[in-house]
Amino acid sequence: CRQLINAGMDQCPHCQQLLCPECLAPVSADDLSCPQCGIDFELYCPQCDAVVAADADSCPECGFVF
């Protein structure tokens, strides 16, 4: 939407577009890395917020099944 946003935001407050935390390029919720800068995104368990591998079927900390 080309609106100005504050540094450190991960989503545009105007159009709700997800943004890469490194380069602020638009990304989709399904992206595992940024198509612009290549940084890998960390995935978090919705139950306990533990970092989870992208190919995991369940959380290694709490056992939550994805």
Description:
There is one protein chain. The protein is mostly beta strands and 66 residues long. The chain has no helices and 4 strands. It has strands spanning 18-19, 26-27, 43-44, 51-52. The strands form 2 sheets. Strands 1-2 form a two-stranded antiparallel ribbon. A hairpin with a 6-residue loop joins strand 3 (43-44) and strand 4 (51-52). It starts with 17 loop residues before the first strand and ends in a 14-residue tail after the last strand.
Question: In terms of topology, how is this protein built?
Answer:
Blueprint: E1 18-19, E2 26-27, E3 43-44, E4 51-52
Antiparallel strand pairs: 1-2, 3-4
Describe what is shown at a glance.
This protein is 0% helix and 12% strand.
Number of helices: 0
- Classify the beta-strand content into a percent band: 5-15%
Regions with little confidence, pLDDT below 50 for 5+ residues? none
User: How much is the average pLDDT?
Assistant: 91
The span between the termini is 32 Å
Structural class: mainly beta
Order of helices and strands: EEEE
Helical residue percent band: under 10%
What is the count of β-strands?
A: 4
Gyration radius from CA atoms, angstroms: 14 Å
* Spatial strand arrangement across the major sheet: 1-2
| Largest sheet descriptor | 2 strands, antiparallel
So what's the overall shape?
elongated
